[in-house]
Amino acid sequence: MKKPDIPINEEDRLNALAEYRILGTKPEQAYDDITKIASLVCNAPISLLSLVDADRQWFKSKVGVEAEETPRDWSFCAHAIHSPDPLIVSDALLDERFRENPLVCGDPKIRLYAGFPLQSSESLRIGTLCIIDREPGSLSDKQCSIMNALARQVVAFLELRKRSIKLVESFYSLQNSSGLISTCSYCRKVKDGLGSWGYLDQFLSKHSSLKFSHGICDSCMEEHFPDVLEVWRTEKSTDQAITKN
Fold first, then answer.
1. What pTM does this model have?
2. Coil, helix or strand for 190?
3. Ranges of H-type helices in 91-194
4. I need a surface site. Which of 44, 116, 157, 166 has the fewest CB within 10 A?
5. CA distance 206 to 163
């Protein structure tokens, strides 16, 4: 088994990962939806949103496995973060880097692996969105396109999380002369001056006139989910044709 090399920008990469304050947090629907879509699109029993920390890979979201993390030395994703391009291993038993890997020899018995790097706005790769199958195989161009789009969407969620945290910290510094803010690194809740914990939108709604709603804008839908948009447009055209008839 070949252990993954350490990237030359490892310190910057780990700092970028830490800024998201995502490690160890609870499951979230937004990320779980993405791994579920990845599994369905690729017809794969396993899908993971894997973040490569200093000595482990930790799964923010997962389909088809129970493990929360594995050692970094075993991680296929730790190999994938060396390039902005996807790492696709059609049959791990035929690849000298992985054929003796414990995740190939034992559970979950990886044969097909396809990892799509999660690259930050500073071009630092913090992990992957990947699919795994217990049988050899490959992905079509369309499946790769959708996986790339989903990986970009994961990064968009993470960047929004980071900006939200910075916004709260900046806002709270105006309200608190000490310039300090209490945030829970596990669930992202914010503690106000009365000692009550609440989510970011609740905190800002309480302390300002800001109101929040959530969704995906048209431009992001076109950029990140063109295949989904194409299906919707096709369905809409079909419905209109049926209505006319």
1. 0.72
2. strand
3. 102-105, 141-175
4. 166
5. 19
Compute the distance between CA of residue 229 and CA of residue 52 in angstroms, rounded to an integer.
Answer: 31
Number of domains in the chain: 2
Please count the other Cβ atoms lying within 10 Å of the Cβ belonging to residue 64.
16
Task: Identify the three-state secondary structure at position 72.
Answer: helix
Do residues 37 and 148 both lie within one domain?
A: yes
For 124, list phi and psi in degrees, rounded to 5.
-105, 125
Tell me the residue range of the domain where 106 lies: 10-158
Residue 152 in domain: yes
Tens-place pLDDT, residues 140-197: 999 999 999 999 999 999 998 888 888 777 766 655 545 566 777 667 677 776 777 8
Q: What is the CATH number of the domain that holds 69?
A: 3.30.450.40
Alpha helices in 66-130 (DSSP H): 77-80, 102-105
Distance, in Å, from the CA atom of 152 to the CA atom of 31, rounded to the nearest integer, reads: 12
Task: Reduce the DSSP state of residue 46 to 3 states and report it.
Answer: strand
User: Residue 134: phi, psi to the nearest 5?
Assistant: -90, 5
Task: Provide the angle, in degrees to the nearest 10, between the axes of the packed helices 226-244 and 141-175.
Answer: 110
* Element housing 205 (H / E): helix 200-207
